[in-house]
Amino acid sequence: MNEASTLTRTNKTARAQAVATSDISSGSAKGDFKWTKTHGFFIQMGGFMIYENGRPKQVLSWKKFKEHYKAGRIDISTYTEDSINDHSKADGFAKGIAVIQTFWFITQCVVRLAQKDLTLTELELATAALAVLSLVMYLLWWNKPFNAQVPIAITISQPHCVDDHTQINVQRNSKGKIKFPFV
Amino acid sequence: MQSAFNIWTDKPPPSKMKLTHILIRIMLRVTETFRPKGWVVTPDNDPIDKTQRPVLVVPTFYSIFMECPPAELKLALSSFSIATLFGAIHCAGWFPKVHFTSYTLSLAWRISSTVITGCPLIWSVAIASLYADENYGRSGHYLGAAFRPMHRAFLWMSILTMPVYICSRILLLVIAFVELQNIPPGALMPIHWATVLPFIQ
What we know:
The structure holds 2 protein chains of 2 kinds.
Chain A: H1 2-25, H2 27-30, H3 37-44, E1 48-52, E2 55-59, H4 62-70, H5 81-85, H6 92-114, H7 122-140, E3 152-155, H8 159-175
Parallel strand pairs in A: 1-3
Antiparallel strand pairs in A: 1-2
Helix pairs in contact in A: 1-8, 6-7
Chain B: H1 4-10, H2 22-31, H3 69-90, H4 103-136, H5 144-178, H6 185-188, H7 193-196
Helix pairs in contact in B: 3-4, 4-5
């Protein structure tokens, strides 16, 4: 009976893992989920938080994320790009206005340099250089969620625990001491 | 269609970080006391995973270590090219349109702007030649042997140019504010856009 339950659990685990793995490989066939640059920014911002018993436990790092994901312990299929962007306080419109304003300042500086009767001060020149830097920054960080305050809760399913127990079972079986942890 | 993510995750774990640039090491040592925690992440000191107590907020300057030398090279080269662009804009001070109160200040601006344009180029060559030496230095190609002395030379040039770069940046900022004491009338005039845009006047 105990053996059977263990077997069932292992089987379920294996299936869960298989499902998760197949989800990864057929992610595009499923249509919705795609790992995007936004996900990359968000995980780097500490936007994915591991929750345990309903409480935040630890920021999910990229390394740990890869480990858990490969083992099929994390289901991220619902965390689409849109659901991450929902945490952002600035959309393309707000960022676009900032870019246009910066671009307008740079245009004015160029015109001042080009026109005969106008001059450009050194402070304007230095500021224009910084403005160009911020333009580049805006383009590079276009997909970065802005001012996200609340992390996305990730719960880690625990198939690996069952696996550990089955391993213990097998070892003890080979030694002849049969003890089942699940009574 | 396989997404890029699959390619990453199916990769075997990286054996060892190859692009450990001595320059970066020195910079790390120098800035060790000043830099905020978690600014530069190496596989050995990821501030999220390597602490005893759980981390609930990522450090301010936290970034993921990329585990991929070509990507690190790409990052370094693109950063330095942006820095070059930044310096090149300062070089507009070479135009006679930009007025300086004295010849000394004009000369200082010209030298400093040249320095901050040139230094990132030297650093790019240093990083690129280091990468070339680590990956193709022992390939047997006759160019391979040239990479090591090249990267040594450019490494030392990089280390020597760094304080010069810092001084130049500070000098440029100071000059920009000092020049406000004497603003030419042309700087206060508004732009007449009708004369700027072609075919309108």
